[in-house]
């Protein structure tokens, strides 16, 4: 299955994405399709990724159970300084130049579980997770823990294909300092049914590119995600990405663009609400805190020297979150 196209989605412009079958024995075809997708727009589908549809449905059901709780219950697990827990409406502002409010979405962050007292828990984005009380949502934590682990395995398979597409060894991203000890963050998302209006600066999620290596996104059937393949175009052209049941939509992050010396590019995307509730599940895959990201050897030459200086990933990511999230002090008022 090389690409997925839907001929009409109402009158809305939509895009055509390559579709990569992770169960395919033809690795050369998978590498070729992925490379073309990364050069075209930085977005593609992956199917037959090993997570069953039954379990995916269960994760969405559990996500809805949390977001259906009254606000006073959700606030009990409010996002902390480690970016674990609940993020209320407007908590995130992704495109301050055009948005009049923060995003019209609420979310829930779940990271890599590191016990309190472990020296690693002192690092940003590492530490114990924040969980709803088991008597409020029985089985919720177990479902999310399992999904976090299974999604990371999918991400590692995709990363191996990306490595081959960049003429690197298959296991390049498997190193301990990259995906051996990653900052991997699961984020449940709920758009409440607000109708977006770009002319008034109202968005489900403002235009942005993701911060890290790759993002895996599972969505329900409600249209909302848009991508802009050429962010420098005037005017920008936005196209919807059709949902594909059972698939992950995968997109490249800014760090991979930096790593590859802009051979592969991260892509602007946003979410427009159409008055319907919408649920999605994002899984952000980042290198470890101590990973030093510098131009890949296969992506530089005398004619194409490195465009970016080396950067330590933990410092970079902390700054990106600080730039886009509300200061926690506002919730104490």
TrEMBL record:
The keyword Metal-binding applies. GO terms for molecular function: dioxygenase activity; metal ion binding. Keywords: Iron, Metal-binding, Oxidoreductase. Residues 182-287 form the Fe2OG dioxygenase domain. Signal peptide: none annotated. Belongs to the iron/ascorbate-dependent oxidoreductase family. This is Fe2OG dioxygenase domain-containing protein. The lineage of its organism: Eukaryota, Viridiplantae, Streptophyta, Embryophyta, Tracheophyta.
């Amino acid at each position: 299955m090389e690409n997925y196209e839907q001929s009409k989605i109402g009158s809305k412009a939509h895009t055509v994405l390559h579709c990569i079958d992770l169960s395919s024995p033809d690795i050369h075809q998978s590498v070729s399709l992925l490379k073309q997708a990364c050069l075209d727009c930085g977005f593609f589908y992956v199917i037959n990724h090993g997570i069953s549809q039954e379990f995916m449905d269960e994760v969405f059901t559990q996500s809805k159970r949390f977001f259906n709780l009254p606000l006073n219950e959700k606030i009990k697990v409010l996002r902390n300084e480690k970016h674990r827990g609940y993020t209320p409406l407007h908590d995130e502002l992704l495109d301050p130049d055009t948005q009049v409010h923060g995003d019209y979405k609420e979310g829930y962050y779940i990271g890599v579980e590191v016990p309190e007292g472990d020296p690693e828990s002192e690092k940003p984005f590492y530490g114990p997770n924040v969980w709803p009380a088991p008597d409020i949502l029985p089985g919720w934590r177990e479902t999310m823990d399992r999904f976090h682990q299974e999604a990371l395995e999918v991400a590692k398979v995709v990363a191996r294909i990306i490595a081959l597409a960049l003429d690197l060894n298959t296991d390049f991203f498997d190193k301990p300092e990259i995906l051996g000890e990653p900052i991997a963050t699961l984020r449940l998302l709920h758009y409440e049914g607000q109708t977006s209006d770009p002319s008034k600066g109202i968005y489900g999620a403002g235009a942005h590119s993701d911060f890290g290596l790759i993002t895996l996104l599972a969505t329900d059937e409600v249209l909302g995600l848009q991508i802009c393949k050429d962010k420098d175009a005037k005017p920008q052209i936005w196209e919807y990405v059709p949902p594909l049941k059972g698939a992950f939509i995968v997109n490249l992050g800014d760090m991979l663009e930096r790593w590859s010396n802009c051979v592969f590019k991260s892509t602007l995307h946003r979410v427009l609400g159409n008055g319907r509730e919408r649920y999605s599940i994002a899984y952000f895959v980042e290198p470890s805190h101590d990973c030093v990201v510098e131009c890949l050897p296969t992506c530089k030459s005398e004619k194409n020297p490195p465009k970016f200086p080396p950067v330590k990933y933990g410092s970079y990511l902390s700054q990106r979150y600080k730039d886009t999230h509300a200061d926690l002090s506002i919730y104490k008022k």
